[in-house]
Amino acid sequence: MRAEQRSGSLLAAPYTAFLLLFAAYPIVFALVLVFLQWDLVTAPSFAGFANVRLLANDGRFWRAVGNTFVFLSIHVPLQIVTALALALALNRQLVLRSFWRAAFFLPVVISGAVVAILWSNLYATDVGLINKLLVRVGLAPVPWLTDPLTAMPAIAVMVTWKNVGFYVIIYLAGLQYIPRSCQEAIEIEGASSWQRFRHLTLPMLLPQTILVITLSTINGFQLFIEPYVMTGGGPLRRTYSVVLYLYTNAFSYQKMGYAATIGVALALIIGAVVLIQRRVIGKADAL
Amino acid sequence: MKTLRRIGLYAGLTFAALTFIYPFLWMASTTFKPPSEVGTLALIPDQITLDNYRTMWARAPFGRALVNSTLVATTITLAVLVFGSMTAYAMARLRFRGRPALNAATLALLLVPGQLTLIPLYTLIVQLGWIDTYAALIVPYLFNPTAILMLRQFFLQIPQSLIDAARMDGMSELRILFTIFWPLSKPVLSIVAIFTFMGSWNEVLWPLLVVRDQQLMTLPQLLTVFALGGGAGSVGVSLASAMVLVVPVVFAYMFLQRNFIESMAGAGIKG
């Protein structure tokens, strides 16, 4: 018993030390940094609420938050619809089922940096693959990443494309839990396939849909490498993301206090948005 | 009617699969095209050239970045497996003071978004003098709460009688872990290994913060810097550099796709 106690503490000691240094300390220090001004060269100085006040009035920060909501309003619904459609297609007797699944999942395993570089070329106005296809079918080319109106939607579509395979797997897992007896019962009742989808499949998949909404929302708030590589936050700052702004403040302006304040604010915004989403969905579910 | 719907289904699947695969094929083929052919849709170039690869290799230390990425991802993966197992074993099977608190802290950490701790971690690395060192890339990732929770969950299901018998034989806890638990835990170990390795291999934000020396850059970072800094100069060269990162992953994925999907989907959901 005492030997177990001792080996237990011993085995857990490195992890405990790690948690203290690389998790607990940074979390506490993030809250401390909110009240500091620090360029990493001179000693940090107490700044009171200056960072908080600056953040509240910083048009660039709120522009980035707004951009994220533009991103989410396209990304989240599109992610649900595409993932659900592909999962429903895969959830049948198929030839080469694992091939289709592997194909849909391929972009998930590829680095976001590569996907961003690849899609910069696909979206390029003159030589991009997408515009070449548009021109071939007789349409006008679109300046996807250089028009303020299309830049963020273009990035949202790309991120949806990259992650859809991941959410397909979530929906496929959910589809396996729908009892066969329910499906047979509703078929005997003579329901059309749309009715079956609307009144059986969709409600049964609600937990998965909530998961997709939560994860894709969190993921959206963490948008960084895509605007960093593809647009630099432009045109007209329309693709500037919160993490890109945080990174710029830390790395280019050496404002550690302010960058940390953005990080804390971002964590709070993510928490609030996810909670509100769950509330709203919970209410809709109760109806 | 029924055959018509099946044809429609397969046509749809083929179209979807092409949307996911074709861009990568186009990327691969473009890297073998001379600049004059880059804008074409054709997958097979009229003239095959290795110039893009030669230019890329000469202009930035991609060989070195490949070594860096492999070293960093392998070290982190081994550490997460070995140290993570030791921690998870203690948290699952040994009673000691502070265990409930450790469990709770690990669970709570999953709720903390990385952006909250990004800057304090960065200033910590600066103060430790670790900017432009492998330590900065590796040490903050030596333990992974998600991996520990997954391993712990798995270890909880292994029968106590195995531990008791081994203790009777005088085996140490570490030997029990590595000679009895590990062989039984291959599925979860492979899941943890894949998502840890891939997470490290693809990570780009953290290296962008803590590494400025080109010789120490990992592949995704060097690739990004190379493409943005204009070092690439042309589409073919830029995509050729991306291939260094993609080809090993796609090879591994082709052979282990089932494990990849299970691992990377599972890690995102975090149980």
Explain what you see:
Chain A is an all-alpha fold. Chain A has 13 helices and two strands; from the N terminus they run H-E-E-H-H-H-H-H-H-H-H-H-H-H-H. Chain A has helices spanning 2-33, 50-56, 59-90, 97-109, 112-123, 129-136, 151-175, 180-188, 193-204, 206-221, 225-230, 242-251, 256-286; strands at residues 36-37, 45-46. Chain A has a two-stranded antiparallel ribbon. In chain A, helix 3 (59-90) packs antiparallel against helix 10. The model of chain A has no long low-confidence stretch (mean pLDDT 92). The mean pLDDT of chain B is 92. The two termini of chain B are 42 Å apart. Chain B is an all-alpha fold and 271 residues long. Chain B is built from 13 helices and no strands. The relative contact order of chain B is 0.14. Chain B is 74% helix and 0% strand. Chains A and B meet through helix 1, helix 4, helix 5, helix 6 and helix 7 of A and helix 1, helix 3, helix 4, helix 5 and helix 10 of B.
**Shape call of chain A:** globular
Tally of helical segments of chain B: 13
Order of helices and strands of chain A: HEEHHHHHHHHHHHH
Biggest β-sheet of chain A, characterized? Answer: 2 strands, antiparallel
